[in-house]
Design a protein that fits this description.
By secondary structure, this protein is α+β, with helices and mostly antiparallel strands. The protein has one domain: Orthogonal Bundle (Cytochrome p450). It is about 55% helix and about 5% strand. The strands form three sheets. The chain has a four-stranded mixed beta sheet with strand order 1-2-7-4. It has a three-stranded antiparallel beta sheet with strand order 3-9-8. A hairpin with a 6-residue loop joins strand 5 and strand 6. Helix 8 packs antiparallel against helix 9, helix 9 packs antiparallel against helix 14 and helix 15 runs antiparallel to helix 17. The longest helix has about 30 residues. It binds protoporphyrin IX containing FE. The site of protoporphyrin IX containing FE has 23 residues, from helix 7, helix 14 and helix 20. Keywords: Heme, Iron, Metal-binding, Monooxygenase, Oxidoreductase, Signal. InterPro entries: Cyt_P450 (IPR001128), Cyt_P450_CS (IPR017972), Cyt_P450_E_grp-I (IPR002401), Cyt_P450_sf (IPR036396). Its cofactor is heme.
Length: about 500
Amino acid sequence: MAMFENPELFLFPLCIFILCFLKITTQKKSPVPTNWPLVGMLPGFLQNIHRIHDYTTEILYQCGGTFEFKGPWFTKMDMVFTCDPANIHHIFSKNFSNYPKGPEFRKIFDILGDGIFNVDHELWEFHRKTTLSILSNIKFNSFLERFVWEKVENGLFPVLDYYSKQGIAVDLQDILQRFTFDNICKLVFNNDPGSLSVDLPYIPCEKAFNDVIEALLHRHFLPEGVWKLQQCLKVGKEKKLVEAWKAFDEFIYPLIIANEGDQNNDFNILATFRKEFEEKNGSSAYSRHFLRDTSLNLMLAGRDTTSTTLTWLFWLISKNPLVEIKICEEIENKMDKKWRFFSAEESRKLVYLHGALSESLRLFPPVAIEHKAPMQSDTLPSGHTLVDRDTKVLIFFYSTGRMEGVWGKDCLEFKPERWISAGGGVKYEPSYKFPAFNAGPRICLGKEMAFIQMKMVAAAIICRYHVEVVEGHPVAPSDSSVIQMKHGLTVKLCKRNA
Ligand code: HEM
């Protein structure tokens, strides 16, 4: 009987069977997966899940930017995949109210609770308003500037100096993740956990993010019954998710409780949320649970996105040595000939560096996939694709940056010049063409902050070291919901002359 209530339980083994069959028999030329009876296109996807971002890009390229995925029967897994800017504009801006994230998204991202990434409608508006008031506060920006520089001087430089002096190769992605983790914890909790130090301490919460983003991507492509069963049995990626959940709670709750007594902090994100929450709910009782969700979402926003962009930037620069020279020249010319710390305002002068970061974001947008659930049936502008209420829409930002029709024949090349206007400033591109920071009313609230932080860190590293990727190091995007480097980025650092 359980089989009939949960058809996934027998469809999934059938998928595995077809997958093995596919492996043994055909080598299909077209990337578009076969639509099998009963199991739909799922076997083709599972076969390619280890390279999901490139695989979907190949399909979308072949299908002109939009593709209808047929899931196994009775599982409600039919989806529309798109990377077409016209559809992105329609879904994220023009018809925004018809495209909430929806209840499916909340199920998949349950670990994020009632945080900003996970909610729609009134609660999202509350989060957005409160977060915006914090991030646009002048005090916040001067805190950010100070924290970043202090961390560069007291965390990043000592660690990189150590590895450079010893001539030991180091995983730059790991270093950058530690940097952004410490930084976001300092901003949210006024507490620096010190994950960035020479001995590279193991902090379960810091590492848990990597497990979470992997498991969450796989949930998009597995029937719900299957990942729920794995969750119950505590196996595979779901086991890691359960452990990550525990690590987050053990890290965050004590900091929330400690913050309740923190009177000396003149800039306090948690206190702002606490006050707003109490006002909204008309009582002095607030929920620690709610603050846990709020801070976890901010940590996710602040840790993975910027560290990932910087990691890809250093890899791209290593492949394009001329870009490194141009970045060094720009810093020298615009920052009084020698390396010094610069303010957020001054960072705006670094137009070429801005272009290099934008290229990194175009080719490797950290948030690579968005998920929307139409409230009413609708017709998408590209090819007049019909989406009905039960159809999830997955939007592939990674693919948008790799379409010749959108970015030209040289779309796969790393060209910071692409971002420089005729007047020498940063060239504007509409967010539906460059959706790395999302588009429309839910556009990223931390974009400015991210660029300031990334410019400071990139400039600090580039001016002090030549970064050399270790020969033969394998490079591929991870099969996770944030596109990290699958194998990290092992580099050797050579300190430049003063
Ligand atoms: C390179 C860096 C960054 C990139 C590429 C990026 C990208 C994005 C994307 C794609 C979204 C939409 C996510 C979704 O709705 O599922 C988003 C939302 C958001 N980002 Fe960022 N982000 C970056 C840095 C930051 C930073 C440093 C912060 C600050 C803590 C931040 C705060 C937020 C917030 C609060 C939202 C939610 C907006 C909403 O739903 O209304 N982001 N970001």
